[in-house]
Structures are given as structure tokens and as C-alpha cells.
Amino acid sequence: MKNTVVIGAQWGDEGKAKITDLLASRADLIIRYQGGCNAGHTVVTNGVTYKFHLIPSGILYNKAVCFIGAGVVIHPESFEKEFNELKAQGVKFDNLKISPLATITMPYNIEVDGWNEANSGKGKIGTTKRGIGPTYTDKMARIALKIQDLYSFEALNEKLDMILPIKNKTLEKVYGLEPYTKDCLISLCETYAELFRPYVCFEWQDMLNRFKDKTILFEGAQGVMLDIDYGTYPFVTSSNPIGGGAATGSGYGPCMIQDVVGVTKAYVTRVGEGPFVTELTDETGKRIQDVGHEFGVTTGRPRRCGWFDAVIMKYAVLVGGITNVALTKLDVFDDFDEIKICVAYKDCRNDKVYTTYPTDVFIHKYLEPIYETVEGWKTSLSEMKSYDELPENTKKYIAKVEDLIGAPVGIISVGPDREQTIFVEK
Ligand code: GDP
Ligand code: IMO
Ligand code: MG
Questions:
Q1: If you take atom 27 of ligand 2, which residue's CA is the nearest one?
Q2: Number of Cα atoms under 13 Å in the Cβ half of residue 207
Q3: 240 contact partners, CB below 8 Å, separation of at least 6
Q4: What's the number of CA atoms in the CB half-sphere (13 Å) around residue 185?
Q5: Is the peptide bond preceding residue 241 cis, with omega within 30 degrees of 0?
Q6: Ligand 3 geometric centre to CA of 214 (Å)
Q7: Which of 114, 270, 369, 425 lies in the 20 to 30 Å Cα band around 300?
Q8: Quick count: other Cβ atoms within 10 Å of Cβ 94?
């Protein structure tokens, strides 16, 4: 396998973890490069379901080194909970490593996320309330704590002297929240230091150099349409899930990436607020939600559902750098008579047709999807093991998707289990 990045091509929850887990069997090093515990990643193997948020989904093989990179934000209490739950399921962490440069989500970041959500009225993003936006805000404002600060009293002391006056003033004056004392934060940081100590990889530069000639898998979280620069801003997350994010969040440069697998469902889902042109608020949307079990892994919220949108997918191929597509959840359509694909948008104010993605999301409320309809296959795909076995109508659907988005489908997923996957060899 070439060095590969796995990214979500839509608004998250495309089945990235399943694809990461599959490709992880061929990798020597797996690097999660952005996001935090806003992610909810599911892997199903031999009937057992594993849920990941921060820990790389490739850890189940216990062969490759799993590295949480500098681009990730880590909420210690969530990490501990996830770690303990996976440990109880028998997962081993001998190969887990954490970058000293990863950023820590502090309790006040979570409080501020909650406050923003409760007080933003129409501007509410519908975040996961995991403190993601406020943590990345602190990082960019250069007032965040990094994992490495936990192991240097001098750095921690100096940084807290710099951070706390600003932080407390904002907490009290802007948000009406309680200030923090230095002693309280130092004591918290001591607990965090113990929690992470076995996994912090201070020799990460040597490690990355050692793996330069090996096979590297980069694991993205969220999806292109949630990207801070290219997504449906401001209804996005606060990091770069696009393929390029792997080059900033991992410690390797762009020349180390040879393949970008864009994971997409055969339809679209979205959790939280924000535009969604092909959203179905009718019975069909409900049917997709029921058959696809579309409920969030992290927050349990029902996911909004709609038809496949080739306009956003073509955009994701471009800005995400996608070279190869993994098409998931095809089995959800097994009983559908017909399936729609959005090929363009029409602005109902002036009939203007968009075949490329209009980035001004405030006009999206005027956009109507233009659909092409393909016939369903009315057969269960879930046991199929090869491309040749697929019904003709499924092949036609896949060919149509490839044609519209300008990228080949290399992996087809027909069920949640690791085994329910077809590698396309046409
Ligand atoms: P991620 O965040 O992109 O890793 O995706 P999630 O884990 O949040 O959501 C994907 C859900 O779909 C999980 O429950 C998976 O077990 C499930 N899943 C993945 N691929 C397939 C598939 O091809 N068919 C079906 N029916 N379920 C799938
Ligand atoms: P995975 O990795 C789906 C969404 C939230 C909200 C927006 C901002 O499982 O695909 P945040 O908490 O990040 O500030 O919320 O982004 N969101 C996700 N939606 N899957 C995810 O992760 C998501 N992570 C964040 O619902 O709309
Ligand atoms: Mg998810």
C-alpha cells in the first residue's frame, strides 16, 4: 500500500473508521492528524463494536504504531474514558503514542463551548460541546497548553502566568463564568501528566524518521464539508479534515502522501446546524435514517439525511485531494425502488444552475437540488464479496457516481463489518 490518507468527503460519519481499520492491516504507522473527541468512529469486527473518539481506529491490529499527532486536541477526561472502555473490551495500547505538541482541551474550553451553544441564538453551530472550537481558538491565539507543558514545571508555570490573566478576564467578563486559580490548574495538569506519561513520545522526530520508508496511514476525522477553510463556514468544525491537513497535523510533509481515500456514503448525513441542499425532511429521509441507523456516535443526536450530492462530492475530490473513493452504506438502498443523485443546484430566485459548489452558504436556502434518478437493485448486497457479483443496477449507480465526481471508486462497503467490503478490481 502507498502512504494513504483516509478522509471524510461529506459532513462526517461516512464510515471512515471502518475504512481506516481495513487499511490499517497493511500499515506500519497510523497517524490521527486533527480533530478531537468530537469524532465518533465505529469499527465492527466479528460482531463486536468498538467506538473511538481520539484513539486511532487502527489500534485493533496491535501491529502498527498508532500516533496521535500534533494537529489533534486532547480532552484528558474523554481520553481516559475512551481508553478504559476500549481496555475493558480487550484492546491493547502497547503501540499508542501521543505527540508532545498535541493541544490540551482544558475544562474552561468545554464550558465556553457550552456557553456559546446556549447563547448564540440563530448563530448556534450545533457543536458536539466537546470544547473543540474554543481549544483551537486558544491554540491560534497562542494561549493553549500543549502535552509537553505537562512535563516541564517551568514551562507550565510561565505559560499559566501568561494565560491565566487573559483567560480569567474573558471567562468572567464575557461569559460570566467562574475564574480558575493557578493552583487548581497546576493540580489538574499533574493528574493529566500521570495519565499521558506512558504514551507521550518525546522522541517523535526519531520515530517519524524511522518510519519514512515504511507504510503510513493518516486518519482524518470529520469531513471536507466541515473543514474550517473549505466547509460550510461558519457551520464547520475548527480544524482541517481535508487531505492537506495530514501534512500539518502529522509531522510529515505533503510529499509523504501518495493516496487520499475519500469516504462517502451512498447518501448524505449531517449532524448539527448548517445548510444541506439535498436534505430530506420527508418519509424518505426518515427511511434512510432508520435503515442506516443514523444516530451520532458521540452525542446520540439523530443525523439529518438526504440524497447523494455529486456537487459537494466533486468539490471534496478537488479540495480534499481525493484520488480514490470508498463508497459506504450501499446496502441501505437494498430495498429502494429508485435512488436519486443530485447533479446540480438551481437558484430558485433566478433559475441560475450551479454544477460547481457555491461557497457562499447564505444563498443555500435558495438552492434546489436537480436530481437524476437511477433504478434500485432490490437485492441484498451484504454478503457480496466481489465487484463482479454486484447487480447491474448497482454497477450503473457506481459508474454514474464516478462519472459525476471525477474520481474512481476503489472500495465498496456493503455492511458495518470489516468483512463486508469489496475492493474494486475492474
Ligand atoms: P465515521 O465517523 O466516519 O468513522 O463513521 P461513524 O462510525 O460515525 O458512522 C458510520 C456508521 O455506519 C457506523 O455505525 C458503522 O458501523 C456503519 N457502517 C459503516 N459502513 C457501513 C456500510 O457499508 N453499511 C452499513 N449498513 N453500515 C456501515
Ligand atoms: P466524525 O469524525 C459528524 C459537527 C458537529 C457540528 C460541527 C462543529 O465522527 O465524522 P465541533 O464539536 O467540532 O465544534 O462541532 O461539526 N461534527 C461532526 N459531525 N461527525 C463528526 O466526526 C463530527 N465532528 C464534529 O455536529 O455540526
Ligand atoms: Mg462519526
A1: 272
A2: 24
A3: 34, 71, 227, 228, 229, 248, 249
A4: 25
A5: no
A6: 28
A7: 369
A8: 9
Cα distances (angstroms) measured from residue 368 to each of 310, 351, 354: 14, 10, 10
Bridge partners of 421? 413
Best residue for ligand 2 mutational test, from 125, 128, 273 (most atoms within 8 Å of Cβ): 128
251 backbone dihedrals φ, ψ, rounded to 5°: 105, -10
Number of Cβ atoms within 10 Å of the Cβ of 169: 11
Rounded distance, CA 300 to CA 153, Å? Answer: 39
Catalogue the long-range contacts made by 402-407 (C-beta closer than 8 Å, 24 or more residues apart). Answer: 402/325, 404/310, 404/313, 404/314, 404/341, 404/343, 405/310, 405/313, 405/314, 405/317, 405/325, 406/314, 406/317, 407/262, 407/317, 407/322, 407/323, 407/324, 407/325
Let me know: does 24 contact 60? Beta carbons within 8 Å: yes
Cell 436537480 maps to which residue? 370
Cell numbers of 13, please? Answer: 460519519
Cβ atoms 67, 33 nearer than 8 A: no
What are 4-58's pLDDT values in tens digits? 999 999 999 999 999 999 999 999 999 999 999 999 999 999 899 999 999 999 8
53 lines ligand 2 (CB under 6 A): no
Relative to the alpha carbon of 330, which ligand is closest?
1
What does the pLDDT read at residue 297? 78
Q: Is the CB of 125 under 6 A from ligand 2?
A: yes
Cα angle value 25/261/66 (rounded, 5°):
40
Mean pLDDT of 165-189: 97
Confidence of residue 426 (pLDDT cuts 50, 70, 90): low
Closest to 408 measured CA to CA, from 322, 350, 334, 293: 322
- For ligand 1, the distance from its centroid to the CA atom of residue 44, given in whole angstroms, is 9
**pLDDT digits over 294-353, tens only?**
998 778 889 999 999 999 999 999 999 999 999 999 999 999 999 999 999 999 999 999
> What cell numbers appear for 364 in the block?
443555500
User: Nearest Cα to 56, choosing from 46, 70, 44, 41?
Assistant: 41
Euclidean distance between CA atoms 120 and 122, whole angstroms: 6
Q: How far apart are CA 316 and CA 319, in angstroms?
A: 5
pLDDT in tens, 356-376: 999 999 999 999 999 999 999
> Cα-flanking dihedrals φ and ψ of residue 241, to 5°?
-70, -15
Cβ 416 under 6 angstroms from ligand 1: yes
Cα dihedral: 107, 81, 273, 334 (round 10): 170
